[in-house]
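Feature request, filed as a ticket because there's no other form

It would be nice if the structure record came with a short human-readable summary line next to the tokens. Right now we just get the raw output. Example of a typical job, pasted below so the devs can see what we mean:
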Amino acid sequence: MYTKAFEIRWSDIDANKHLANSAYINFMSHTRTTFLKAHGFSIMSLSKAGLGPVVFYEHISYFKESFLGETITVGLEVSGLSEKGTFFRFKHNFYNAKGENLAFCEIFGAWMDLNTRKLAELPKDLLQLANTFPKSTDFKLLTKEDARASGRRPVNLTL
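Raw output as currently delivered:
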């Protein structure tokens, strides 16, 4: 499991004086960015490929509070990739200094071509790197159908 430690800052807490839900999202994003960079997915390599990540969902379960000044550790496990690298799924766990699990999140996303604004396959060099990512014990080869597994579809507002 890849991990990254963070100290909870004043700007990370909410009116209840505990870690705000938006801070969880920010900590996960930063952890993913450092994980990807450590595995060859630098900003430069993504820019060269014309790719950016897009998130389809983030499902978070909260178990225990954390507070200002505490150090938390965010874990990351790759729990799914598609054959051509378009789709990815990560699991994040949050831990306090005692190793207690504070929260869990599953995130599902894809790579988007920044010019066409369409989902994209990874170029060969990045796909080779993605295939070397350490994988969770419940790793799954993802398909396009996994992106819509919840069955949710957009429902437009009738004006």
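Something like this underneath would help us a lot:
The chain has a mean pLDDT of 95.
Residues 2-148 form a domain with the Thiol Ester Dehydrase; Chain A fold (CATH 3.10.129.10).
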